[in-house]
Design goal:
This protein has 189 residues and is α+β, with helices and mostly antiparallel strands. The chain has two domains: 50 residues, no CATH class; 95 residues, GMP Synthetase, Chain A, domain 3 (2-Layer Sandwich), CATH 3.30.300.20. Helix content is 32%, strand content 32%. The chain contains five helices and nine strands; from the N terminus they run E-E-E-H-E-E-E-E-H-E-H-E-H-H. Strands 4, 5, 6 and 7 form a four-stranded antiparallel beta sheet that branches. The longest helix has 23 residues. It is globular, with a radius of gyration of 20 Å. The protein starts with a strand and ends in a 12-residue tail after the last helix.
């Protein structure tokens, strides 16, 4: 597979249109309003531990962009589910990995580094006593560990630079690495 191609005189590296990324960055640098995004999902209980989340669109630069996706979530049998779909923790880890993957691919493309392979493996421990209210322990992760395996025509120093850039710019790395203020509203119908 040729990782560097040209379409309409645009350089595409690792499937990323480098010119398009540079144009987006230039537009946002010139007008910060063009870089403002809004994300929204709606989750409905389907029965037992099954839920379905609907994605109907997002906002960018003041415009609504329609999208239509559904994400089904369940729990394993051992956690009282039916094991039909990944559970919330698996989606959370997948969302972190997927966001960082985009970062690695784009950062490499912007530096002209052609990738042969990229894999991110993330894991963490949760003590169910916290979730079940049985002990005064955290109901979620105290830490997550991840390993990035990356191969391509970059040097070790270039990949270290890419790694640092991803940790500094990945939205989901940021979201999980620090506390995010949650603003809950309860509506009882």
């Amino acid at each position: 597979m040729n990782a560097i191609t040209k379409f309409d005189e645009r350089q595409v590296i690792n499937g990323i249109d480098v010119g398009a990324v540079q144009a987006l960055a230039g537009a946002v640098a010139a007008d910060k309003a063009k870089g403002m995004t809004n994300w929204k999902v709606s989750t409905q209980w389907q029965g037992q531990t099954w839920s379905r989340t609907k994605v109907e669109g997002y906002g960018i630069g003041g415009q609504h962009i329609a999208r239509n996706f559904a994400i089904d979530v369940d729990e394993p049998l051992e956690l009282c589910g039916q094991n039909r779909f990944p559970n919330p923790q698996e989606y959370l880890l997948a969302a972190l990995n997927a966001c960082m993957t985009v970062g690695y691919v784009a950062q490499c493309a912007l530096r002209g580094i052609v990738l042969d392979s990229l894999e991110i493996e993330t894991e963490g421990d949760i003590d169910l006593r916290g979730f079940l209210g049985l002990a005064d322990v955290a109901p979620g992760y105290e830490n997550l560990s991840y390993t990035v395996r990356i191969k391509g025509d970059g040097t070790e120093a270039q990949f270290a630079e890419v790694h640092a850039a991803v940790m500094a710019t990945s939205p989901n790395f940021h979201n999980l690495a620090r506390a995010v203020t949650l603003k809950p509203t309860l509506v009882v119908e």
